[in-house]
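Q: Is it fine to ask for two folds in a single conversation?
A: Yes, each is treated on its own. Send the first.
Q: Here.
A: Result:
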Amino acid sequence: MELFKNLTVFSLEQATVLPYLTYRLAQDGMTVIRLEHPVYGDPNRMVGDNVLSEERMNAYYLCINAGKKDLTLNLAEEEGQKIFHALIRELKVDIFATNQLPRNYKKLGIDYDTLKSLRSDIIWLGVTGFGPDSNEAAYDPILQARSGLMELTGEGNGDPQVLGIPLPDMGTSEHAYGLVMKALFKRQATGEGSCINMAMFESSVSWLTVPITLTDSFGKSITRRGNTHEFFCPVSVFQTSNGYIYLAVGNDRQWQSMVSQEMFKLLDKPEYAKNAGRIGDVTNLNAAINAITRNYTSEELIELFTSITVPVSKINTVAEVITDPLVERRLLSAQDPVTGTRLTLAPPPNMTPFMEASQRQLSFPPRFGEHNREIYGGRLGYSDDELAGLKEKGII
């Protein structure tokens, strides 16, 4: 719990890619302060249902912004930049992150060289769509399309599909998280800060480990294949009398265990004994399995396959995932001190000591400019009248 508690993160953030990263850092116990333009703010605040019946606190925003503080500041104005630079010094900011377009870095006074002159060991992170030399806007589905992720998703004879989660956004966040931790280690070892440029496109393409090697080295044509697996069979979704299961037979021994069961004995054929034979007739074999499984409930099939150690799972709805005992005990929460609204939040990929110590509770996602008075007044010494003047001028 003590490891990260004295670290301060400033994040000029919007949308998903950077807010998810700083959400992860807040789960480590860092002080995360998000910066927003005093007029436009984060567009994600206006996305989803207006569950609190107030402006800029819509449901989509609430999912990944708990545990943070919020300031509004107009960095396009010279006075706003002066305040920002004073905060960098006064709050001894350890990590600054932004997903602004690179052409705005110097214009807003947030470029690495400027911030390094204020804090020599600062860790600076710029997240862009296509790298620091590109000002091309990037939305997650565009990155899915350009990176090949969409080409690999969907039925073999159907249209390309977007993924069920925004992997370019969240995957880039995960990659950036690792780079930030490396930078903290480097700073601890050498006293030096870091300048990190993280491109969402590079992050997205890096997941294509098998497709790239097989395509370019061995001339394979890799594309979407629905629920089947290119190298193992049977691995797919199968219908049951009350839903669906996903079955994954990963080797010939597991196949033999499966066809030794009475209901599957008709599939115990020499041509299916080896994985290559099953892959060669995957369409017919899957249809034959499906004709059998649809006569049994998901629960009966799961009990059977589990008893013979063949990997299987019911295909859970999100509501069912939440009640899974392995998930339920690791869910996070946040409660609004104003309305009493309680949020259930997704668990971290690994439960942090900070979250354990805080009983898996984070502060409620901050309202727009909620901490202006606390930080501008309490840390920089602005009076209420001065803050009112800054607000009137559109600085905060």
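Q: Second one now.
A: Result:
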Amino acid sequence: MYSPDLSLFVLDAGIKLLELERAELLYLSLSDLVQHAHGPGDAEADAFHSAVDARVGRLAELGAVVGLIADHGMNDKTNEDGTPRVVFLEEELNRHFGPDSVRVICPITDPFVKHHGALGSFVRIYLREKLELAEVMEVAAALPGIALVLDGKSAATRYQMPLDREGDFVAIGDTHTVIGSCRAEHDLAGLNGHRLRSHGGLSEQIVPFILSHPVSEAYREISENRRVRNFDIFDFALNGAQ
């Protein structure tokens, strides 16, 4: 999981399947380890993306309609001294309202801590005590690094999430800030000295949307008249490419 070769192997496997004419449709999912660890212009990032580009070129040479998409953008979330820029929101709110007043859940949490230390820019907050929701949201919104707070219903509606699994409210960090629960729940040693690069905020919604072929007039109109989402790449590649 912690090697760029994982992604290159996936692309090489896809190329081999096309060369052997054993596939009509391929979905090749890559790791974002390099993008988490290295910013644009870093030697490691340039070398990796050059290798990816060569393989994408080979897929196109073999006659494939190639669609390239990302699940999220990536921004530097680091202080000037190189330390991660984190708001430990559960600690902050419990300090204000009392111990165990709230519980902060980080949905980005996964076992691959070298990517981002389970830190992203979106969290869900649950009230454990009989607190006024509006008051807790106001305190959270006033913290430096917090860009937006929304009650659970508003968040579910705005971001198309199931209401029955939503928190009492959500908090979203600004472009260069991640939100954690408390320090004890985040292992930052796995970053190995790299600047923290992560996602989950509004600033990471914009991603590349690339097709190897031009699209039909009807699909050009779609892209001009409504917001195109990353999952639209399937429709564009399968039905819109000329």
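Q: Anything structural to flag on that second result?
A: Two points. The domain at 76-202 is CATH 3.30.1360.110 (Gyrase A; domain 2). The CA atoms of residues 15 and 21 lie 10 Å apart.
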